[in-house]
């Protein structure tokens, strides 16, 4: 686990981490639903992450691994000492920036919350402000730990990337279990802060001991740092639907009614499990390998790897979407329906999850396809494309949200993300010659046929069982879906799909 160089092996490690993290996340969301349900308090909690998310997006987020990693990898090949100097400068400058920004946002949090969530009543705005100020300092941990973690990824070390999110989620669970009974929803916020300190910050620093010289240097005008900012600028300033879709749900959802922000958030958390398990894990594992291929001038190998990775991830994304759609109702019932979260909440969240499921292949594809650009140090063109789609999608969110409520917002996200993913693939083909549309279409068609059959089997199993016991219904439907999907993959799946399923079975066993 400590050092992994191949994409399949690294992806398997990160996918295992994502799976465990999502299981912990299930416990986290279950405790949250039990304690506070889906009302104005949960709306305030989920909205409290909006300002911290914006800060993280601007200063770090994808910019660290996507922009800094290729630069740092190339520097290590050319001049290891220069690479470590660059690391110290990026670490020092970003730490200072995030600390100053955090202090400013904590001061102006009331005004920013009131500006973004005008439809919240005064009490909900005050609660949201208090929660925002608790979770804001966690962004310092994410930025500092993220810079250190990127240098570990460049060395083929994925342990910190695998462990940090687990500890972060455990912190939130601990806050909900031990602090929420006395502090209410604030217990979850304090748990998030503690989890950020112990996970995203502490884990990379511990793993870097004796391997990476962690030093801090302030040099905001250094030439290499300015080059990093140039590469990172579109990721910091541009807007991708991978991130902004959730912001739109919070902004528009808060204007449509009480509880909609929470309902969308609960459904999104479940949708993001297969997205993270497939797209996030494969994308994170692929970028270091693709960056090395580009640095070595192996353009043909790079294109083949991108296409092969896209075909495998797209097929898994289609299967994951069908599985999520098939088991949406018993899944929501099992995870959320208890305490303050009632049967009506289950029906609404399950409906939203079913809509979100159609976006899973696009989310997975976008995360992997964009790495074909980032590995080449090209961040401007894909981000300009994504920003254009994001801006064009605003009227769609507004129109569908006004006409169909939370379901309209989920539908708008699925449509916009699908169009963005197709455009990203098309741009990659135009500029780099890969991926070829024919093999992608063939893989998608085969996967869709398998997914339809597996989904039908799962739905039939649910209709025949109808036990009312969520765990039994979910297990039965999941077993039926998995059996048909596995058999279909071997019977009509293409070599990429068969190989991918075979690796999953082998890794799982």
Q: How does the helix and strand content classify structurally? A: mainly alpha
Count of all domains: 2
Number of DSSP strands?
A: 0
The percent range for helix content is over 70%
H/E element sequence? HHHHHHHHHHHHHHHHHHHHHH
- Range of strand content: under 5%
- The gross shape turns out to be globular
Count of DSSP helices?
Answer: 22
Largest sheet: none
In terms of per-residue confidence, which ranges show pLDDT below 50 for 5 or more consecutive residues? Answer: 1-5
CA-atom Rg in angstroms: 22 Å
Task: Give a quick summary of the entry.
With 509 residues, the chain is mostly helical. The protein contains 22 helices and no strands. It has two domains: 1-237, no CATH class; 239-435, no CATH class.
How would you describe what is shown here?
This protein has 22 helices and no strands. The chain is an all-alpha fold. Helix 6 packs across helix 7 (122-135) and helix 15 crosses helix 16.
Task: Itemize the secondary structure elements and their pairings.
Blueprint: H1 7-36, H2 40-47, H3 50-59, H4 62-78, H5 80-107, H6 109-116, H7 122-135, H8 138-154, H9 159-183, H10 186-208, H11 223-237, H12 241-256, H13 260-295, H14 299-326, H15 328-336, H16 343-357, H17 360-369, H18 371-374, H19 380-432, H20 437-465, H21 470-492, H22 495-508
Helix pairs in contact: 1-9, 1-13, 2-7, 2-13, 3-5, 3-8, 4-5, 4-8, 4-11, 4-13, 5-8, 6-7, 7-10, 8-10, 9-10, 12-13, 12-19, 13-14, 13-16, 13-17, 14-16, 14-17, 14-20, 15-16, 15-21, 16-19, 17-19, 20-21
Features:
globular; 509 residues; disordered N terminus; 2 domains
